[in-house]
Amino acid sequence: xxxxxxxxxxxxxxxxxxxxxxxxxxxxxxxxxxxxxxxxxxxxxxxxxxxxxxxxxxxxxxxxxxxxxxxxxxxxxxxxxxxxxxxxxxxxxxxxxxxxxxxxxxxxxxxxxxxxxxxxxxxxxxxxxxxxxxxxxxxxxxxxxxxxxxxxxxxxxxxxxxxxxxxxxxxxxxxxxxxxxxxxxxxxxxxxxxxxxxxxxxxxxxxxxxxxxxxxxxxxxxxxxxxxxxxxxxxxxxxxxxxxxxxxxxxxxxxxxxxxxxxxxxxxxxxxxxxxxxxxxxxxxxxxxxxxxxxxxxxxxxxxxxxxxxxxxxxxxxxxxxxxxx
Length: 326
Prior knowledge:
By secondary structure, this protein is an alpha+beta fold. The chain is built from four helices and 13 strands.
């Protein structure tokens, strides 16, 4: 038994005579076929393009958010850039246009005298050329007390020109300390650089100032500590006064070994090297015009005169404590 063949031509030819349900079913089939073909031919590529555009939109939104953040921080970055320009201008202004080695040596000698130090062995080394500046190293040796050396380094770093300190070597030199160091000053490579155009009136930055008033010398036992206090303005010393033999010896080389009384007058016994010296109130001691002001059982009070960084004279009290092991 064979099945009859389905003749689509005959069916479509007589479609007008179909009943209403058949016509509706045929219309739905044709509409579905149109939708499938339209989806495959038109809507699918458009949907793919839509996805690509949505991804691109997300990237653009992220870029927009980043740009908005940059615009919001632009003012702050502008202020930071201006501050960096002013700092750069200040550094350039601190660099000399010419070699100022003589002035630097004068400043070193002045600071050494102001702190009661002996500056020796100054040697100018070869200049070192860099991209924006020329470096002038100076090798030197400074001898004195611990606090005086620290104050000297603090004042050296506080000069108006840029001075840096390198290669420090500290060692004992009898009762004193010897500090070997290399100080480096700098000048511009091109005198034509105009730092004033970048920023005028750059305020100098505060520098560290060493204060030994509440500190002890780590290289001396407590019994031999010499107390340091800041100086106060006073009159210049009498340079016409004859200097005594004990004024050629640094204060740090003396140690108090006892006292001696004769009636109402009291004397202090101070030892330097192997010799013991007797001093009364009013006697001079040390290279800084030190004068004994009071003698007690356990210590001696004296006052020293020294110039400050501006050349004015200051008065500084010092104390020699009795060495109980003497």
